[in-house]
Amino acid sequence: IKKRKSVYGRTEEEAREKMENILEGIEEEKEVWENPSRMKYKQWIERWMADYKYYLKPSTRENYQYMIDGHILSTIGEKPIKRIKTQDIQRLISNKAKVLSPRTVKLIYTIINDSLKQAKYAKVINDNPAENVKLPKQEQKEVKYLEQEDIKKLLEEAKQSKHYTAILFDLSTGIRRGELLALEWKHIDFKNNTITIEQALTKTQANGLVIDSPKTKNSKRTITVNEGLMKELKKHSWKQKEYKDKLGDAYYKKHDLVFCKEDGTPLCPVAFSRTFKRLTERAGIEDFSLHGLRHTAATMLLEKGIDLKTVSATLGHADINITGNIYTHVTSKMQEKVAVVLGEALQECMN
Question: What count of other Cβ atoms lies within 10 Å of the Cβ of residue 193?
Fold first, then answer.
């Protein structure tokens, strides 16, 4: 399909000059793609991103573009792609590691590596110089979770809030924030006491709040929940029905959200986290985030003897190793219990 390009100018001479510049740019780009030795890395990564962005979620796409514009193009963007060496990328990564978090540095590397991997596949370059780059060590953050006494304090305080059911739900399932705020009533099976998680809410600069598929394919899951939570959800649905009846056609109907504003519109994830933070402070719990409820749920399950594979499936982790690495503080306690049980069993045989 041929695309037409219109050019406008205040005078015929100005319009002609603009057209000549466009044609010159087209010829230059054509020559670069016919002779990749002249191609700058910024030309390749921009073309790669133009194709690759359709495979990314909106929020991830914005994050990638931010990293490219803010950290990659300004460092190696002008360098010819065939002249980029491992030490160029290593220097970039090492410099960024001095001012950015290991997670952000890893994302920058991932973008560079994936784009150059594709360049090698397309025979633009012979080897991928990013392959042997070393990343800074990412220290495992301390997992913060609530002990039983703090859980009681939190729930007592939450009962005074309109978000009580959402907080209880998070504690009972270990669900991610975006998954919680994208949950619809069609996902709740009151007959079988199950919850199906198949979408997530994210905030983007371009399109505001967006409901899309969740983080990974393993994030799509159905989990069984307890009767107590189901009773609270029924109460929550009755309260919500009052708002629906009151507002009528003014009530938001695009998504039948479980946890939302009074008019049915989605809750902003960042604002919800801030509300939760204030609630925990009122409950006398310092420095504890909403994500900590996910850790609390997982810790409770593991300490009660639920196996790692089941906990991993409940949380929607992509890999059981992720669960094991995050919750080493619990698995070490479990190992101690194993040692005690085996010791007791052998003691009986020895007597």
Answer: 14
Partners of 237 in beta bridges: none
From the number of C-beta atoms within 10 Å of its C-beta (0-12, 13-18, 19+), residue 25 rates as exposed
Exposed, middle or buried: residue 180 (CB in 10 Å: 0-12, 13-18, 19+)? Answer: buried
- Per-residue pLDDT tens digits for 37-96: 678 999 999 999 998 888 888 888 999 999 999 999 999 999 999 999 999 999 999 999
Calpha distance 13→44 (Å, rounded)? 33
pTM to 2 decimal places: 0.78
Contact 72, 104 (CB under 8 A): no
Contact 293, 176 (CB under 8 A): no
The HSE-up count of residue 308 (CA atoms within 13 Å, CB side) is 16
C-alpha–C-alpha distance, residues 60 and 205, integer Å: 11
